[in-house]
Amino acid sequence: MTAAAVGIIGAGRMGTALARALTAAGVPTALCTARDSPESTLDHLLRHTRIVLLALPFPVALGLVSGPVGRCGGGRTLIDATNPGFCRDRMVPPGLSGGEIIAAAANGWRTVKAFNTVAADHLAATRIGGSRVTMPVAGPAEAKPAVFELAARLGFDPLDAGGIESSREMEDLAVLMARISTAYGLHGRIGIRIGELDHAPVAVNGQGAATA
Ligand SMILES: NC(=O)c1ccc[n+]([C@@H]2O[C@H](COP(=O)([O-])OP(=O)(O)OC[C@H]3O[C@@H](n4cnc5c(N)ncnc54)[C@H](OP(=O)(O)O)[C@@H]3O)[C@@H](O)[C@H]2O)c1
């Protein structure tokens, strides 16, 4: 088996779509399920990939990193793409986030929250009105550049959202986007674009110009 740059745990819709997109973008990527035995591809992936991405339901991801897996990172980067807000049981206490809980459990890793605000079925749709879709990235500063690079390789516009505590708002954002997608019949074809406003003068009541 050759070493991959990114190892994705979870071969469901998100894991499979991300593995396909990253591979197509030229990033050597390995994919495995969380059900593998210790001698399996999961073990190989955990040992040999530079970046590991969790594409599992939040309770499964937490269960995984709460054991030896959480301690085996050696300071490598763990990307948490989970969205606990879609789980039936409330597992995240109010005021906290799945990202922070995963980061605390996976203390052998540098945990970065990312990829949770983009839809598996639309990873190729990375533009809104010609501008790249924003992907917030939260976590330790030293781990973020590599995650920025992955997001950019897929065509997204990575945005520094601060420390892992920003997972709270990022996970809420994913739920809000899903709700809006449903309301407008978008079937997940929804993204956000965050950027600096243009400083064009704005007319006020047709009486000349003023800034907004
Ligand atoms: N789908 C999206 O558009 C999207 C976007 C952003 C983030 N996410 C997040 O990504 C994560 C995965 O979502 P998904 O849509 O890919 O879900 P999914 O299609 O249901 O896939 C879930 C994966 O988790 C595995 N799994 C489930 N229960 C398990 C267990 N008890 N033990 C071991 N493995 C188990 C499944 O394995 P089996 O197939 O063997 O059951 C499957 O590989 C979630 O946290 C979700 O919120 C999803």
UniProtKB/TrEMBL annotation:
Which Pfam families has this protein been placed in? Answer: F420_oxidored
Q: Has UniProt tagged this entry with the keyword Nucleotide-binding?
A: no
The UniProt GO MF terms for this protein read: oxidoreductase activity
* Residue span, Pyrroline-5-carboxylate reductase catalytic N-terminal domain: 6-40
Report keywords, A-Z: Oxidoreductase
What InterPro entries does the database record attribute to this sequence? NAD(P)-bd_dom_sf, P5C_Rdtase_cat_N, STEAP_metalloreductase
Which SUPFAM superfamilies does this UniProt record tie to the protein? NAD(P)-binding Rossmann-fold domains
Q: What is this protein called?
A: NAD(P)-binding domain-containing protein
